[in-house]
Write a structure and sequence with these properties.
The protein has helices spanning 3-38, 57-60, 64-69, 77-106, 115-137, 142-165, 173-184, 190-217, 240-243, 261-290, 299-321, 326-353. It is mainly α. The protein folds into two domains: 1-171, no CATH class; 175-355. Mean pLDDT is 89; it is low at 169-188.
Length: 355
Amino acid sequence: MAKGTLATMAVAQWLRRLSIGGVVLCFAVVVLGAYVRLSAAGLGCPDWPGCYGHLSPIGAEHSAATDAAYAARPLVPQKAWREMIHRYAATTLGLVILAITALAISGRRTRLVGVTFALALFATVIVQGILGMLTVTWQLKPLIVTLHLLFGMTTLALLWWLMLSLPLSSWGDASLRSAGRAVQGGGASPINTARQLAIIGLIALIVQITLGGWTSSNYAALACPDFPTCQHAWWPHTDYRNAFVLWRGLNIDYEGGVLDNPARVAIHLTHRLGALVASVALTYAAVFVLRQRGLSKLRPRAWVLLAALALQLGIGISMVLKTFPLWLATLHTAGAALLLLATLALLRALSARAR
C-alpha cells in the first residue's frame, strides 16, 4: 500500500476519533453550561479565566486576600466548582478543535475536511470562548448569555456535521448517494422538496433555541407556571415593549433578572409559540420523508427526528407541570441539543442523496 494512502487513512482515522470525541464533549459542555446557569452558578467565579484570582477554587478558599478583594461576592465553593468544571471542559474542547484544524490544514491534500470548514469551526469556538468571558465580566447580560448558548450549539452542529461527513461506510453516505441517483433518474424528485422542508425546520429550530436562551437568561421560565394556559389565561397581560430589548447598558447585575413580570410573560409566551411553529415545521419535514417511497432509506432518521421532538415537547410540558425542577430544566437543554442533532442528521442524509 502506498505511503500516501497510509497517511490519508491515518489522518481520516484521527479525524474520526477527534470528531466523535468533540461531539460528545461539546454536548457535555452545552448541558453543563445550562446546569451552571440554571443553578445560579454563572457568577460562581466573578473573574476570568481564573476563579477569585486562582486556577481553581481550592486556592481561593480560606484566603483573606480573596475575601477582601471580592467582598461584594463572597466565594461559594459549590458554585465556584460548577463554573470552573465547565471552563475546564470548554478548554479541553477548544484543544480538540485545534487538533482537528491542524489535521485539516496539514492533510489538506486528502480533502477529507475542507480547510475553510475547519477554520470556521476553530473561529466559532474562539468566539464562544470570548462570549464565555463576557458572560462573567458583563454579569450575565442576557444578550451575551443567549449568544453563548447559540455559539455552543453551533459548535456542536459543526462537529456533528463533520462527523457525519467523514468517509466512513457506517454513516451510509455511499448507499444514500447511489439510491438518490436511482430515485432521481433525471426527472422530478421529492429529494429537493424534503431537503427544503428540513432546512425550514432547522431555521425554525434555531429561532426556538434562541428564544429558549432569551427565556432562560431573563429568568422568564417561571412567568407561566401553568399549561396550556399562562397564569390561567390564554393571553395574559404582557409587555412586549421591554421584553426583547437587546442592550440595556453595562454595569448591571442581571443575576435573577431585571424585567418586570409582564415582560417575562411576553418572553415565555413567545417561546411557547415558537415551540409550536418549530414542531409543525419539523413534523411536516419528517412525515414528508416517511411518505415518500423513494426515501425509504431515510425513514429511520425521520423517525429519530420525530422521537427527539416528542421527547423535547414532553420535557417542556413536564417542566411546567412539575414547577421547573433543576434536573428537568437542564434536561430541556439536552433535549434541544438532541433535536438539533437529529434535524442535522436528516438534512445531511438528504444532502448526500441530492448529489
